[in-house]
Amino acid sequence: MYDRFNRKIDYLRISVTDRCNMRCKYCMPDNNNIQWLKHKDILSYEEIRDITKYLVSKGIKKVRLTGGEPLVRKDIEVLVHMLAQINGLEDLSMTTNGILLASFAKKLKSAGLDRVNVSLDTLDADTFRKISSLGELNDVLEGISIAQKTGLNPVKINCVNSKYNTDQDIANVKAFGEKNGLQVRVIHQMDLAGGIFTTVEGGQGGNCTSCNRLRLSSDGRIFPCLFNNQSYDIRKTGVEKALALALNNKPKKGYNNQNQSFNQLGG
Ligand code: SAM
Ligand code: SF4
């Protein structure tokens, strides 16, 4: 499928939850003031499957599960299994902070997940604690290693360059990637409300002219652009209409988004 600027849309990012077992400073800075979604508003796995099935029938080929932290949603491997059965879906991946990955890798692989991206901004345990507020670096490193051994390859690393880490941290993560056969993508810290974003080093995000993405929020809205307030509520209009509106209103270029945060939209 194509949007009105003739960009081919074949990539869907699904945020399965807004909850997380970390509190990264650049993602959930105002820890005490987070407005969590209500349980009843969160899409069920059956709803996510049916929506995805429809979107795949229209041309989506790649799906990424994100969040919040996808591994904190109960029985996430059940959703992975449901999505992996969809005919025409060519690539099913997940972005995770890696904290629970060691214990989930095998289940995810057997359920049909193709690969994972793991977020890692530093190899220094203290800096890691400062950025994430919760969570231990060693759990992430173990998760990465087990994901590789389990065959969730290629395992890629998302490294956010922010004021909370240094150039040396980034260089160390890059060297760690080279040594261990991990592709590292450096993402400059973005600001949704301020409309601050750049292209991703080693990745495809942030380039509006070639943007191929739609996003599905955990409360069932299609967002045509991360840096735009517009969203189309599937529960209100039905998926067909929400998709048509999202395609017709996907902006030529991202501007800003004052209503959402990274943990709601999944980056
Ligand atoms: N919890 C998972 C994780 O951290 O990988 C998935 C969700 S997280 C919102 C998805 C990606 O967005 C992560 O790689 C994270 O580092 C990135 N991210 C979060 N806040 C960001 C920000 N302000 N600027 C740039 N990237 C950000
Ligand atoms: Fe959680 Fe990921 Fe946001 Fe960090 S970046 S707080 S791990 S959702």
If you had to describe this structure to a student in words, what would you say it looks like?
There is one protein chain. Helix 2 (about 75-85) links the parallel strand 2 and strand 3 (about 90-95). This protein is α/β, with parallel strands linked by helices and about 270 residues long. It has helices at about 45-60, 75-85, 100-110, 125-130, 135-150, 165-180, 235, 240-250, 260-265; strands at about 10-15, 60-65, 90-95, 115-120, 155-160, 185-190, 215, 220-225, 230-235. It is built from nine helices and nine strands. The chain has one domain: TIM Barrel, CATH 3.20.20.70. The longest helix has 14 residues, at about 45-60. It has a nine-stranded mixed beta sheet. S-adenosylmethionine binds near residues 69, 97, 190, 262 and 263.
What features would you highlight for this structure?
267 residues; alpha/beta; TIM Barrel; 9 helices; 33% helix; binds S-adenosylmethionine; binds iron/sulfur cluster
Secondary-structure topology with pairs:
Blueprint: E1 11-15, H1 45-58, E2 62-66, H2 76-84, E3 91-96, H3 101-111, E4 115-119, H4 125-132, H5 137-150, E5 156-161, H6 167-180, E6 183-188, E7 213-216, E8 221-223, E9 232-233, H7 234-237, H8 239-249, H9 262-265
Parallel strand pairs: 1-2, 1-7, 2-3, 3-4, 4-5, 5-6
Antiparallel strand pairs: 7-8, 8-9
The chain binds S-adenosylmethionine and iron/sulfur cluster.
The site of iron/sulfur cluster (SF4) has 13 residues, from helix 9.
